[in-house]
Amino acid sequence: MKPPQNPGRILIADDQADVLEALRLLLKGEGFAIEPATSPAALLSALEARDFDVVLMDLNYTRDTTSGQEGLDLLSAIQAIDSMVPVVVMTAWGSVELAVEAMRRGARDFIQKPWDNARLMSIIRTQMELSAALRQGQRLEAENKLLRAENRPAMIAESPAMQPVLQLIARVGPSDANVLITGEPGTGKEVVARTLYAVSNRANRPMVTLNAGGLAEGVFESELFGHVKGAFTDAKVDRVGRFELADGGTLFLDEIANVPVNLQSKLLRVLEIGEMERVGSSKTRRVDARVISATNANLTEEVAAGRFRQDLLFRLNTIEIHLPPLRERREDIPLLANHFLVTHARRYRKALQGFDPPAVKALIENPWQGNVRELNHVVERAVLMAQERMVRPGDLALRAGSQASGRLEDMSLEEVEAFLIKKALARYNSNVSHAANALGLSRSALYRRLQRYGL
Ligand SMILES: Nc1ncnc2c1ncn2[C@@H]1O[C@H](COP(=O)(O)OP(=O)(O)OP(=O)(O)O)[C@@H](O)[C@H]1O
Ligand SMILES: [Mg+2]
Question: Taking the chain, what is the end-to-end CA distance rounded to the nearest angstrom?
């Protein structure tokens, strides 16, 4: 679904019906979409409800037909609602001073009545272009902060267990279908999300990421949907949310199980009908984002426990891609290990040739509770430790965690923590919710530790 080409929307305000009608005919004839307003109040409520590209307004209204004061006050009210929309004012013939005052207060241009059609059209076109450029600029600025200029990631997947994953990526990647990626921590869900994006027909538009795991509940809504100035104490300026940034592109919602229940219905609505509001604003905005989400939770269980809405799950998992744990695709271990070895050896400037055969055997046989991420960390450490051209089993330091139970007193606090987390994950089959429960941690607190310890 592509957003329809925007013809340019103009809001016209004048209290004289014949003026409104003449302007409507003229501008409609030029292909613009017109919305008339006959009073300052009608103008403001239209602006609150929808986006416009240009506002064309008279300065004089019935309450006070000559001074233009009402129109000047209206200018500040407009700016408070939409600080970007260009306003063109209409003044009576000969009242240039009033027009100048309006420009001083933020109007972008003025035209005197009775107007010259060609001049009016040229003003409107210029303001349209300016408006588009400004809005685009605001978006780009926000995008640049968020986007890492990474293209398609390396993805190693030669094992039989990974073939269904590759086939699904090839089949659904180019479509706009929402995809849910599941799998234990460290299995490569983000790699798959980036690959899906890279092969999609939205690859030339941004992929915007929101990690629901690391967010405090209070800031969640504003991160997703943005906010307007004054929506809450810290909202000093308008802020564009991730959904709007991803408009026309792709939104990657990582650790989706952590979206607070009270926000799930808002998420559902934007997925269903493509409409949302910034926090603190009643203006409805349309967004068109392809949503890729990922989780290592069992969402069906989360639904059963009342922590996740079933209707939202059905929206997200149009297609589900499940990543098998590394222990079910051991054929890939030597390839992955070599890939990480090359990367880290380059980074640390070490001349390493590879793993000696016992090291490869040890790698293949390791349980890999932390999956590919753990393998990556083990190889990184080995690259640093290796004294010769080949990595040896001793450099891999594989058994440290699993056999240390008798010597807790020899371990640092961090090692103990990592050890207990590993044990909890093993006990609960890598189910993060359950492990977090057993450890007395929140899910997000456990996530942060998993990242920190490379588990
Ligand atoms: N198939 C793969 N080929 C190459 N590298 C991979 C592959 N899968 C994972 N990786 C690497 O392993 C690390 C972990 O992958 P990723 O972050 O995608 O996992 P994840 O499933 O999102 O983990 P988490 O659940 O903890 O968020 C990354 O450094 C990633 O580049
Ligand atoms: Mg991830």
Answer: 39
Q: Hey, what are 49's tokens?
A: 């409800």
The atom of ligand 1 lying closest to the CA of 193 is 18
Identity of residue 70: E
- Between the CA of 357 and the centroid of ligand 1 the distance, in Å, is 25
**172-188 per-position pLDDT tens digit:** 888 889 999 999 999 99
> Ligand 1: which of 150, 181, 191 to mutate, most ligand atoms within 8 Å of CB?
191
Sort 18 into a burial class: Cβ within 10 Å, 0-12 / 13-18 / 19+: exposed
- Range with lowest mean pLDDT among 20-34, 87-101, 351-365, 377-391: 87-101
Q: What is the pLDDT of residues 12-41, one digit of tens each?
A: 999 999 999 999 999 999 999 999 999 999
Cα angle, residue 382 at apex, residues 376 and 383 outer, rounded to 5°: 90
31 Rama class: left (phi>0) / alpha (psi -120 to 50) / beta:
left
The mean pLDDT of the chain is: 87
Q: Residues of the chain with pLDDT > 90: what percent?
A: 52
Cα separation values, 84 from 77, 107, 158, Å: 13, 11, 51
Mean pLDDT over residues 273-287, rounded?
Answer: 91
- Which is the closest atom of ligand 1 to the Cα of 255? 27
User: Starting from the edge strand earliest in sequence, which strands make up the sheet with 54-58, in order?
Assistant: 33-37, 9-13, 54-58, 87-92, 109-113
Query: What distances in angstroms separate CA 228 from CA 77, 192, 260, 285, one per listed residue?
Result: 15, 34, 21, 13
